[in-house]
């Protein structure tokens, strides 16, 4: 009972910090919109409307990160249907505006729509898979503070909060822990990291996908992911990730060391850095092959910011890490 109360308190603190960061970002965004509202052209009106509608779609998509554990498949399907309808409306708006706007504005809008469709399809595949995976019910956790001098790993049963649910696999609601998964524990599974603070995470193997939500001051090293990684709410952290596709939302003051086949996509982010994925461990070459990735094929410098539509200027929200 005491453990349950502590977990609820930790979760509430994580959620409050996440909401505070989102409010701060929204305030800055509204201030920027106010600065340009006095002088608007057709292009400005289009971009403001497009961004507003796009934001509603991505917020619906991101909401699946927090409510998916409480929803049944019918609820999830209905939400995807709502998202699809909004996408059709936004596509029609772009098509109807084409004759009044510069070609580069329309081209950029179409690129963003294509990326959103891709994110929707990836999320649908993740939450409504055609086949079911079998998930292990036990994980290993090591104390980070060094009190366990023997270095023995403590096994936590799935009834405790470290595991997320019967359908997911990973860690949640933890502070100051060293967490690890070996190849047999994470093979072809969807890994979830939710509400972690002051933790280190090391995942060796080839998971199928990964979702990360509300982590702060945390270091993550992960082996190659065969599909996509979704991140929503990451602060003051460092993540070493290899995957086919990477989607990052509402993240601040965080460095990403990545290997990715397609462009990484960020949205509602500030001061996020990108460097090359350099993590190595015994067996990673085989895991890279299994994930369909290659060390010499890496678009880590190619980042697309959904909040920055100017083709001739680089987004100020991300930077290349100089190390």
Automatic annotation (TrEMBL):
It is found in: Cytoplasm. One of its GO terms (biological process) is tubulin complex assembly. InterPro entries: C-CAP_CF_C-like, CAP/MinC_C, CARP_motif, TBCC, TBCC_N, TBCC_N_sf, Tubulin-bd_cofactor_C_dom. Signal peptide: none annotated. Transmembrane segments: none annotated. One of its GO terms (cellular component) is cytoplasm. Residues 158-308 form the C-CAP/cofactor C-like domain. Belongs to the TBCC family. Keywords: Acetylation, Chaperone, Cytoplasm. This is Tubulin-specific chaperone C. One of its GO terms (molecular function) is tubulin binding. The lineage of its organism: Eukaryota, Metazoa, Cnidaria, Hydrozoa, Hydroidolina. Its main location: cytoplasm. The keyword Acetylation applies. The gene is TBCC. Supercomplex made of cofactors A to E. Cofactors A and D function by capturing and stabilizing tubulin in a quasi-native conformation. Cofactor E binds to the cofactor D-tubulin complex; interaction with cofactor C then causes the release of tubulin polypeptides that are committed to the native state. Gene3D superfamilies: 2.160.20.70, Tubulin Binding Cofactor C, N-terminal domain. Pfam families: TBCC (PF07986), TBCC_N (PF16752). PROSITE patterns: C_CAP_COFACTOR_C (PS51329). It comes from the Eukaryota.
């Amino acid at each position: 009972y005491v453990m349950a109360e502590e977990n609820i308190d930790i979760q509430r603190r994580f959620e409050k910090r996440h909401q505070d960061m989102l409010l701060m970002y929204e305030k800055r965004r509204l201030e920027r919109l106010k600065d340009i509202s006095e002088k608007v052209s057709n292009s400005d009106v289009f971009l403001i409307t497009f961004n507003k509608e796009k934001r509603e779609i991505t917020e619906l998509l991101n909401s699946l990160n927090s409510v998916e554990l409480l929803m049944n498949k019918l609820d999830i399907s209905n939400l995807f249907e709502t998202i699809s309808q909004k996408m059709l409306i936004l596509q029609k708006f772009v098509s109807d505006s084409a004759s009044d706007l510069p070609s580069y504005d329309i081209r950029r809008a179409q690129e963003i729509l294509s990326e959103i469709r891709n994110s929707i399809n990836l999320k649908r595949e993740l939450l409504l898979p055609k086949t079911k995976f079998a998930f292990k019910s036990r994980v290993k956790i090591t104390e980070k503070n060094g009190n366990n001098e023997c270095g023995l790993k403590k096994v936590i049963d799935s009834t405790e909060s470290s595991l997320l649910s019967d359908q997911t696999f990973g860690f949640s609601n933890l502070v100051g822990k060293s967490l690890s998964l070996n190849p047999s524990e994470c093979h072809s599974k969807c890994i979830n990291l939710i509400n972690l603070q002051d933790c280190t995470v090391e995942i060796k193997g080839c998971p199928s996908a990964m979702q990360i939500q509300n982590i702060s001051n945390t270091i993550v090293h992960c082996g190659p992911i065969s599909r996509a990684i979704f991140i929503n709410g990451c602060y003051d952290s460092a993540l070493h990730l290899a995957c086919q596709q990477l989607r990052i939302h509402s993240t601040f003051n965080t460095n990403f060391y990545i290997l990715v086949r397609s462009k990484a996509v960020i949205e509602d982010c500030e001061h996020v850095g990108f460097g090359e994925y350099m993590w190595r461990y015994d067996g990673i070459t085989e895991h890279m092959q299994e994930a369909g990735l290659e060390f010499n094929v890496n678009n880590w410098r190619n980042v697309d910011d959904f909040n920055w539509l100017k083709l001739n200027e680089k987004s100020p929200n991300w930077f290349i890490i100089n190390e």
